[in-house]
Amino acid sequence: MNMKKMLKEAQRLQQKMQEDMDRASEQLEGERIEGSSGGGLVTVVVNGHKQIVSVQIKKEAVDPEDVETLEDLVFAAAQSALSAAEARNNEVMEAVQSASMPTGIGGMLGM
Q1: Which residues, other chains included, contact 106 with Cβ-Cβ below 8 Å and sequence gap of 6+?
Q2: Could you tell me which of 6, 65, 79, 91 has the fewest CB atoms within 10 Å of its CB?
Q3: Angle between helices 67-100 and 3-30 (to 10 degrees)
């Protein structure tokens, strides 16, 4: 394959990978990932981009005399949701990258 064809093919592959990543990004934005704590007393929902979409707190979790526990529950639920979103994000992006990688190129790149 001559250099001009190789460059053209590389540009085509780069464009395809960008399109695939854009589609994956849109997919992740639409996904809802939930984290909860306190046996479901506090639930935090995030999207695949790790942005908080909603927070739900059951009445039983609210004690005006113990705000610190509620803070801990909200924090734990948010951490749970964000960790799950991070894992999902990695899973989707790895799938896009491996699908976009031409057969045999991993070996050429030392992968």
Answers
A1: none
A2: 65
A3: 150
Q: Token match 């999902």: residue?
A: 88
Q: Which two tokens stand for residue 19?
A: 């399109």
Rounded Cα distance between 104 and 93, Å, is 20
- For the chain, the distance separating the N- and C-terminal CA atoms, rounded to the nearest angstrom, is 23
Q: Which domains does the chain have, with CATH numbers?
A: 3-103 (3.30.1310.10)
List the structure tokens of 49. 């981009």
Q: Are 56 and 40 in contact (CB under 8 A)?
A: no
